[in-house]
Amino acid sequence: MKKCCVHLVYLFVVIWLTRPAAGDEFTLGLLIPYSEPSGEEISVEYLGKYFAPAIIQAVEDVNNRSDILPGHHLSFIWNDTHCNETVALQSMWYQVNERRVSAIIGPACTCRTAARLASALDIPMISFMCNDLTYDRIDYSTFVRTKIQVELPKLSRGLAMLLQKFNWSQVAILYENSTYYTAIKNGVVEQFKNEGINVRCLVKLQLHVPCETTSVKNLTVFMTDLVKTIKENARMSHEILLHAYDEGMTNGDYVFIMLQLEQKQFIVNQRIPAQYHLFPVVEDRRCDYFQALEAVIVVEIKPMDSANNTFADFEKQVSERFNDPIFPSREKLPLRYDTALHRLKLKNLKE
């Protein structure tokens, strides 16, 4: 069960559905990438079949409490977006126009157009996965996200201030080859240039490609700068640091700034802080890696107070009840939901 997505669904139901509506019934619209799009690969965390059961529990919890929606009843319908924006918009239109939903959870993969449309129609929408970077509060007035978001202007200014604090003016940026990190890289580079910080080189790294076949091994050929800002996944960061150690670049002449901006890592850090220390490293390189970390500054999302056990209790409840994480099959969906959701009206779902 994907921890973040379970939490997000629960938060939306609890926080947003105090919105007035005609009659006694609130209908939620759920837009999820239930199945993998044909011919494409998406990260497993985006596949709705691994977290969709959470909404069954969340809806029941709301209906069983008299303090959240007194005098009302909550139900939901859902559509598979296949992680496709066109399909998501078509499904959204069906839910809004034909099923008269009161609010929408989703979409996951991209949400800019759907969020703009929801705001124009004055329908609350919350996305639990969308990574699109910038939304203003006027044009997207009814849209919120529970996925942790990086405010690019603040991040860029903060990094610039950090470099200026120590008079570091020569920088190389290594970044993951993804839309998300490329957008962050572009914003940071623009800010650095405005602040007079010289970006000496940009290196695009690829996921699942060994360091030997990337330009990482050639970094020392053209790098004479002081700061390296690393924006990519943990595996790459560890390989880069070990390579830097081997090249004698972690002895104080260089500093490496590592950015940990992923929600998955944030959740892990809530339980066990400083996970970058615990990344599995080959036994005979562990001491080398720990020494390399002395040249590292980590910029990460600040953990929240974890004293509140509301989510942990909800996660446990869902996990125990739905020990098979897969959503009910499409053939059995109406029957299974009828039982699980006190016979909610789900017979006319549009595929």
From TrEMBL:
UniProt keyword annotation of Heme present: no
UniProt keywords, alphabetically: Membrane, Receptor, Signal, Transmembrane, Transmembrane helix
PANTHER family in the record: NATRIURETIC PEPTIDE RECEPTOR 3-RELATED, RECEPTOR LIGAND BINDING REGION DOMAIN-CONTAINING PROTEIN
Protein name: Speract receptor
InterPro entries tied to this protein: ANF_lig-bd_rcpt, ANP_Clearance_Receptor, Peripla_BP_I
A GO biological process held by the record: signal transduction
Ranges of residues in domain Receptor ligand binding region: 53-309
Organism classification: Eukaryota, Metazoa, Cnidaria, Anthozoa, Hexacorallia
Subcellular localization(s) per the UniProt record: Membrane
GO molecular function annotation: peptide hormone binding; signaling receptor activity
Species, as recorded: Acropora cervicornis (Staghorn coral)
Gene3D superfamilies xrefs: 3.40.50.2300
Gene Ontology CC, one term: membrane
A Pfam match: ANF_receptor
Keyword presence, Magnesium: no
Signal peptide bounds: 1-23
